[in-house]
């Protein structure tokens, strides 16, 4: 049976039967990667290469000019770009921290506690997996106006915190923690707070890492709050600033736009690379029944 | 009088005590669970449940964002179906076309790629999976810049210059402003970015199937890889298939705004890339007909719900 395993699913070593898969996968990978490599090169191209005809794919004389131009730029009202960048970092980090805090305690309750509405709440959350925020942009705007959150920095963060996918993944993962372990801790007098901190957090780490990635991506890329709920320019985020550079056919900003796209992309990529094995671990428990 | 005042509080105390006791017992049993859930539930109610309810309520009103909404019954829905020719002629067909092409193709591609990745050794798989997943990290503005550069309408746009050099075209094409090409570009870009969470879930699903299941399948007469996928792989990872499908439905509808992002105008040139999401924005935030826009929102939520039900039918476990 060893040959059966080594030549089929999850093989240990390379085999000639895998060539066809490699060919297709590499072709797809090239298609996926090319647009990103365009941007990578564009970000480092000097002006004349950006507007060269015919455009060259590779960069010949790489320069950091686009990044300098981006960070020394100011908006019409005199807000420096680093301010947007700082806003994005603060928004991203706080969103991650609070999303994890509320999702882990909720996931623990949904998985291990006994209460009447348990099944109902889980089903509601599963239904909410299909929630598309953009569909209810108008009532969301009205809710935010009524709460007095217009032009408040927290408006970047609060609407992001309830993340149905996040709660779902953590709950599924906490389901794997054996009840006997929790019972033993309870007999020793541990309360919920202690159990969450000392047992759930360490054991559900992969799921938490995954939710952190998803929450960060959502917050980091979001322009929703900046364009709709915030008029004060110095409270807006980098993603929003970038969308003003990205207006189609605005050629002057092409190099800066590419540089900013790269800046948007790289943190997501790095975080994902660091945590990818944890993500795969979590996804193994992601099934919907 | 004495007796009345004395007996009355007694009865009240009894009733009150009863309730207090019940609450005490309840909170001893279940209170901590709700306390743990409270943060999530509050945010969930405010930013998910409540907006959906408000959308439903507003859809029965005429609301211009300034004056108090006035009830108009189902007039908005009637207008949507009978008078909004843009919706019936462009927006609805576009949305159906976009969802039916980009959704299934993206999903099937994600599954096939996940399956193929499972057939190669781990080190190669990790690198290739990372590359395939990376476009989904460029949601929103970054995507606009990436593809805007490629489809740029002047001669230094990548696609234009390649086609010019190959002499397939004589003049640069305004790809993103052209009603003929916008939809197909939207579909390509959406498929490009659709190897997201669902794709990773399906990859984990394929890898988690036991060898014994395959061995049993081959003993039972499975002859080739295709039969293996249909009879073993997919049935063994139905939960992940379902999760991936739900994520794909959501992702496809979420990506709906991309036509406006790429072309830079709402409405898109001759409504070529106009989807329900853009129509909502057009009426809600450009024309301030929020009641009417809410009715369109409700229709969109219903469409998404219907699609998800359909995939649930396909992959859910029926008992």
What does this protein structure show overall?
- The complex is a heterodimer of chains A (289) and B (319).
- By secondary structure, chain A is an all-alpha fold.
- Chain A has two domains: 15-63, no CATH class; 77-283, MetI-like (MetI-like fold).
- Chain A has 15 helices and no strands.
- Chain A has helices at 2-7, 19-43, 47-50, 65-72, 81-112, 118-128, 137-146, 158-161, 164-174, 179-187, 192-203, 205-221, 224-229, 238-245, 254-283.
- Chain A is globular and about 70 Å long.
- Chain B is mainly alpha-helical.
- Helix content of chain B is 72%, strand content 1%.
- In chain B, strands 1-2 form a two-stranded antiparallel ribbon.
- Chain B is flat, with a radius of gyration of 27 Å.
- Chain B folds into two domains: 2-58; 85-146 and 181-315, Orthogonal Bundle (MetI-like fold), CATH 1.10.3720.
- Chain B contains 14 helices and two strands.
- Chains A and B meet through helix 2, helix 5, helix 6, helix 7 and helix 8 of A and helix 1, helix 3, helix 4, helix 5 and helix 6 of B.
Brief characterization of the structure:
The complex is a heterodimer of chains A (289) and B (319). In chain A, 67% of the residues lie in helices and 0% in strands.
Keywords:
heterodimer; A: 289 residues; mainly alpha; MetI-like fold; globular; disordered N terminus; B: 319 residues; 2 domains; two-stranded antiparallel sheet; 2 strands
Reconstruct the topology from this structure.
The complex is a heterodimer of chains A (289) and B (319).
Chain A: H1 2-7, H2 19-43, H3 47-50, H4 65-72, H5 81-112, H6 118-128, H7 137-146, H8 158-161, H9 164-174, H10 179-187, H11 192-203, H12 205-221, H13 224-229, H14 238-245, H15 254-283
Chain B: H1 2-58, E1 61-62, E2 70-71, H2 75-82, H3 85-117, H4 122-133, H5 141-150, H6 158-165, H7 182-192, H8 197-207, H9 211-219, H10 225-236, H11 238-254, H12 258-263, H13 276-286, H14 290-315
Antiparallel strand pairs in B: 1-2
